[in-house]
Amino acid sequence: MGEEIFVSPKKRGRIAVFLSGRGSNFRAIHEAVTAGRINASISLVFSNVETAPGLLTARESGLEALYLNPKLFPSREEYDKQAIREIRKRDVDLVCLAGYMRILSPHFCREFKNRCMNIHPALLPSFPGLHVQKKAIDWGVRYSGATVHFVAEDVDMGPIILQAAVPVLQEDTEETLAARILVEEHKIYPHAVHLFFEGRIEVRGRRVFIRDA
Q1: How much is the pLDDT for 2?
Q2: Could you give the domains of the chain?
Q3: pLDDT band for position 3 (cuts 50, 70, 90)
């Protein structure tokens, strides 16, 4: 059998944003949608944290916001299955993780293969996981940055869509480096979503190609 190839749809689509906190990347995506730079609408903002500021922002923006309590479910997979039901009700084409602090189950990853994006504040595959700015400084790397990637069963190891590099300065702290990386996150995440609904993302194996780049 030949290599499996996925091509994103060229259409006006529907997005679900998953978040656990302030949702600054959600705001960046929403601003791009509102400005017409993304050919899609946000159908749902979903959170595992009832008090997440991003949910309040969504409600104030007139978007549907949903909190689902993880304690009501016996396992991560059962929780994710209910999340999938909510997504399917709304005919969502793309899930965007924007500071969602739960690891998705393998079941969810399979259900939304190449249709779930995440933003990570490092140049993957370097420094997956948490506390990545500290790792970058401790290792003395000269460049860090941000990566938009598709979500896979292995955390932070899905196909890379876009990256932006940020110099690591000698006087940097975790906070100053994170702040400069965040500026780039807010640029490349909406652009990746734009490319998805323009039908310009092609995945071959674990490599992503941007059509008409």
Answers
A1: 63
A2: 5-206 (3.40.50.170)
A3: confident
Distance in angstroms (rounded) separating the CA atoms of residues 168 and 124:
15
Burial environment of residue 189 by CB neighbours within 10 A (0 to 12, 13 to 18, 19 or more): buried
Mean pLDDT in the chain?
A: 97
Positions annotated as catalytic residues are 120
Residue 213's pLDDT band (cuts 50, 70, 90): confident
Q: What is the DSSP string of the chain?
A: ----EEE--BS-EEEEEEESS--HHHHHHHHHHHTTSSSEEEEEEEES-TT-HHHHHHHHTT--EEE--GGGSSSHHHHHHHHHHHHHHTT-SEEEESS--SPPPHHHHHHTTTSEEEEESS-TTSS-SS-HHHHHHHHT-SEEEEEEEE--SSTT-SPEEEEEEEE--TT--HHHHHHHHHHHHHHHHHHHHHHHHBT-EEEETTEEEETT-
Q: What is the pLDDT of residues 112-137, one digit of tens each?
A: 999 999 999 999 999 999 999 999 99
